[in-house]
Design the sequence.
């Protein structure tokens, strides 16, 4: 779906080795786009490309990053692969949602706990706990914003959530999902 977006504008939160960055840059070259990448580590040396702007910062330095997003006229894609903690992910979604164009996408990496479960191939209790809590937080956001977003999940590898923006109305706070007894 995203490879057909002309003049695509992408906000990438978390660069590390630059694998996703290279894929996004190829997409920007093919579709006359721009990529803003943010990381607390200085990754500015990874690529020399006039379609790429690297911001050496935390992804929640909203004053700095919001200005750059406004300068490029909003974004079509937000890719969250930074701090994998549910309340941080919520804070990031709620800040950047207003800059996401209608029918744009937010991708949240690492929402599956399955690879980190006991006796699984990547067994790790912290990743297990954070991923399942992030998954639940995204469901809580969806639960109280059913008319504003669509959510899909993939559980391949460490999992991905795809959130599609259906309305320009501001998101309401997440709402706990309570089982009927």
Sequence:
């Amino acid at each position: 779906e995203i490879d057909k977006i002309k003049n695509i504008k992408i906000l990438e939160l978390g660069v590390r080795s630059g694998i996703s960055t290279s894929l996004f840059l190829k997409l920007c070259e093919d579709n006359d786009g721009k990529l803003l990448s943010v990381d607390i580590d200085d990754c500015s040396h990874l690529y020399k490309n006039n379609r790429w702007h690297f911001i050496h910062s935390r992804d929640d330095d909203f004053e700095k990053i919001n200005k750059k997003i406004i300068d490029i006229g909003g974004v079509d894609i937000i890719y969250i692969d930074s701090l994998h903690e549910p309340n941080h992910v919520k804070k990031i979604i709620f800040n950047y949602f207003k800059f996401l164009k209608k029918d744009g996408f937010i991708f949240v990496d690492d929402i599956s706990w399955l690879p980190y479960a006991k006796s699984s191939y990547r067994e790790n209790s912290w990743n297990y706990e954070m991923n399942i809590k992030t998954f639940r937080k995204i469901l809580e956001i969806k639960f109280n914003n059913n008319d504003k977003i669509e959510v899909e999940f993939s559980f391949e590898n460490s999992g991905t959530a795809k959130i599609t923006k259906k309305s320009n109305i501001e998101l309401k706070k997440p709402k706990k999902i309570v089982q009927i007894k």
Q: What stands out?
A: Helices lie at 19-30, 62-72, 86-96, 125-143. The mean pLDDT is 96. The radius of gyration is 16 Å. Strands lie at 9-13, 34-39, 52-56, 75-80, 100-109, 149-154, 160-165.
